[in-house]
């Protein structure tokens, strides 16, 4: 996801700084569905042609600014695509290549519907009107990432039989929680962010942050994606798994972004 910044082992103070380091020359793809179509964003060397292959079908991609898009798709098509590892056939410098990435996002509900369900509710995130990555994106979204929580039960346990949530604190501490009615079955995992790998922001205000943390002496990689309406997805790569060449070890969907970081206290 673009450039990277090194953090101290116990603090996230450098979240207030800029992303630094040389951009990767190789082309990489980020693929996300907004519930209507699929968008593909490339970093590194930019292609002149692109085609998406996912869910057993091939889709033409047309460039719209810095984003390549499919035409509007049916719910069935989106359901067959989202959550799969897709191929993108590209032409770069006159040569044909294939890049692969996980398709994240929504399978059937647009993240920015024309008619909002509650017109009087202000947007969660400022919509910049253009896509960005790297420093510009990080400066825009770092305040949304630090001191936030993503949960599949916004009302909080015990309002749900099981709650899964991620909490991101300003000091670099993170928590993954799986809370149930049986305390012995709970998962409460604390980690420390050691490196921000990149950031991106879409024109509608949706955003993503990739980072590496350390827990129990082992490094892990994550990508957090949050749609304009707050719907979130967390991709997780276990220790020793390269996110550049491997699908996520786990993908957590159905999450909702909330302001304020939470640990695993009920």
Would you tell me the overall average pLDDT? 83
Radius of gyration (Å): 18 Å
Question: Count of DSSP helices?
Answer: 2
Q: How many strands in all?
A: 18
Roughly how many Å apart are the termini? Answer: 34 Å
Write the H/E string, N to C: EEEEEEEHEEEHEEEEEEEE
Helix/strand-derived category reads mainly beta
What portion of residues is helical? under 10%
Strand share of the residues? over 45%
Which regions have little confidence, pLDDT < 50, spanning 5+ residues?
A: 5-24, 111-120
Strand order of the largest sheet: 11-12-13-14-15-16-17-18
Shape: globular
Overview of this structure, please?
By secondary structure, the protein is mainly beta. Helices cover 7% and strands 45% of the residues. The strands form 2 sheets. It has an 8-stranded antiparallel barrel with strand order 11-12-13-14-15-16-17-18. It has an 8-stranded mixed beta sheet with strand order 5-4-8-9-2-3-7-6, covered by helices on one side. Strand 16 (218-226) and strand 17 (231-237) form a beta hairpin. It is globular and about 55 Å long.
